[in-house]
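Forwarding the complex inputs:
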Amino acid sequence: MGERPAILWLRRDLRLADHPALTAACASGRAVIPLFILDDQVETLGAAAKWRLGQGISSLSQAIEEKGSHLILRRGAAADVLTRLIAETGAAAVYWSRLYDPAARARDGAIEADLKARGLEVGTFPGALLFEPGMVQTGTGGFYRVFTPYWKSVRDRRVDPLVPAPARIPAPASWPASDRLDDWALGAALRRGAAVLPRYTEAGEAAALARLDVFLAGAIADYQAERDYPARAATSGLSEALAIGEIAPHRIWHAAQHARERGAGDGAETFLKELVWREFAYHLMVHTPHILTRNWREEWDSFPWNEDAQDLRVIAWTRGRTGVPFVDAAMRELYVTGRMHNRARMVVASYLTKHLLTHWRIGMEWFADCLTDWDPASNAMGWQWCAGSGPDAAPYFRIFNPETQRKTYDPQGAYVQAWVAEGQRNPPQGALDYFDAVPLSWRLAPSDLYPAPVVGLAEGRQRALAAYESYRSES
DNA sequence: TAGCTCGTTGGACAA
DNA sequence: TTTGTCCAACGAGCT
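Prediction (whole assembly, three chains):
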């Protein structure tokens, strides 16, 4: 192939199907050099997400090999890495799928301008979102701040069709050097006593597609009725694949639409809404990027949150030792599996921000460190919604009672038993895995006594209500 | 324009 | 046991 090659810069799109940038690169008539850059200035991932990213890269690398190609790994500032690789390979074009967080947008915009100024062809493509920012506006040209109008405006829109994976990826005459993935040590930051996470993770595009198929064949029909029960296998489990693009939201959208037409009505509709919640989070992040770091409603800026992550009760929260069974089960599920059921996320966030009057940012940072499905837009929106500082009219007196939640959504105690070993004669494996996972320095053992509550639920609720009342009357 | 309706996810209590 | 009502009241988005 005489043409100069194209670089396919992969980021949060670790798949081969439904990948417009890959499709365009393969159709360009050029040889394609797939590249992943570990850009430490932008890849500010927490420990679990970084480990999970490594799993995704490994899986994608194998899939690319099967297409007659190689995934090149390089580390450094993306602009520098690209410049060097272009010099090494004589590449004349760079393709990538667009990202939407402020840091990546700034970086990518500068790189695009620079490459174009140097005469290179740059192709940027959608792929991570169903509806890109700018495609969705209110009637007056603004952006949506409330989910339901957003949902109504997108629910009947056309979504890009699916694109099959290329049969093969055209290879260059010679390959540039690549780092070894193992040398990146992406799991090094996991402060874990043992490697428990792999027992709960299936990485890669093939695994994600299989998971979707399983969900479509079963749980989707009862999704609306069952999804709130954290001990039941009622959800798709696709969040971590979606977070690094092992599956395209388009694939999920079309599959769910198909299921809806075939009679999985309410379940499919509710599931589609969840997918659109992710879109809405990105919509908010693009229009109000401060949602990632500061109170979305600035009238909360002077609220006297506890901001001490070393507060003993906050530490008890992170370690699943608050003495509130539903909260502790959820926090241990997070630590062991890298994920947490959605309802449990709301309950633990409400508990931290209200019963413990602790800043949502502290909770979000712990989630960032522990989640394998970490997504900045969804997490910032979720935490601010729970805290009451976000774009939602949730009244301050809405405080989840974790005991009421447990009685309603875990009536048989299956969720708590699955994750809290203390007091059980024969704890299940997951509950025991927690004690393998935690660092020795935490000094925890299954034979420990289960702790007394760090704060009474009624007392915590009253304290939160009083704090809000006092804050409102002062401001 | 001004008015109207509604807002993912709740809790406590009364009847 | 289940169902209804109130909590307090703003602002988004539509007509």
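The radius of gyration of chain A is 23 Å.
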